[in-house]
Each structure stands twice: as structure tokens, then as C-alpha cells.
Amino acid sequence: MNGEPILFDDYHSLSQLHIDLLHSVPITSPVITEVERKLLNHPQTGRYTCLAMLTRAILIELLLYSFADPAQKRRIRQSLRETYYDLPERWRQPLREALARMQWTEVLKEEERANA
């Protein structure tokens, strides 16, 4: 959150803003992503809410990936990999499960091999 303190009072306003944005702007909006980034770092955000937000982001990456050229595909894989390792450990397991269901596991393994 760019060094901003996390306030417990702001959780409800962020959560409501997130819901409002999901119903009013395209699902690919960077504004949604920014609000989700703040919610993911908020201690009051529940596991399933985090999983839903991460899943939305991954689905968008899947859409972009399917239309990307090889260089863009590599950037998308690298970005997803970096995002995964930046997450707190408590969010990695549900994300691993979601990635496996969406068949992204092999894509990430390909990026791991390329960076080895």
C-alpha cells in the first residue's frame, strides 16, 4: 500500500468500493485491480475473498495470454510468477489450487524452467 498505514476502518469502505466497481466498470479495469491490491494486503480480508480476487486477476491474465505474442506471453508468465512469490504464504495454497483448476500450473512450470 505504498507505505500507507492499514486502517481497520477503511476495510468496509474498500470492500464496498470493490463491490461497486465490480458492478459498474469493466472487469478488466485497473481501478478494480488497485482496490484489490489494497484489500489483499488488509488483515481483515478473508481467505475466500482473496481467492476470488486472485482468481479474477488470473482469468484476465488467461484472456490476455490467449491473444498475446510470444514476448507478451513470457511477460505475463513472469508477472504471474512474481505476483505469486510476493504473496503471503497463507494465500499461496488457495492460489495453487485455483491455478491447477485453470490449468496454469504447466504455464508456470515453463516459466520456472526458463528462469532456472
The low-confidence parts are none
* Averaged pLDDT: 81
Beta fraction of the residues?
under 5%
- Helical content stands at over 70%
Key features of this structure:
116 residues; 6 helices; 76% helix; mainly alpha
Q: What does this protein look like?
A:
- With 116 residues, the protein is mainly alpha-helical.
- 76% of the residues lie in helices and 0% in strands.
- The chain has 6 helices and no strands.
- It has helices at 10-24, 30-40, 47-67, 70-86, 89-101, 105-115.
- It is globular.
- The model has no long low-confidence stretch (mean pLDDT 81).
Fold blueprint:
Elements: H1 10-24, H2 30-40, H3 47-67, H4 70-86, H5 89-101, H6 105-115
